[in-house]
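thread: overnight batch results

M.L. [08:02]
morning all. the overnight job finished for the chain we discussed friday. pasting input first so we're all looking at the same thing
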Amino acid sequence: MADILRPALGLLPVASFLAVLLLLDSYKLVRLRAVVGVVLAGGRLGVRVGVAVGVAVGVEVVTGAAAITPPRGGRRIPARPQ
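M.L. [08:03]
and the structure it wrote out:
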């Protein structure tokens, strides 16, 4: 549930701003289909650029909350011996 809720809440200000811009467009210079298409294209481009930069820098792409949450009980994870 939180996996869906966080991105939705993050996109809420953007969607609200676009809705206000469309309402203020009294001459109807831009169609809703064009706005949605541009937003989706920008999202796809953002994901591609993010992945490309991650690959170029050598960052492993990890999904899921388990990758960023601390261990339970406040236990520290010992460092790996080198």
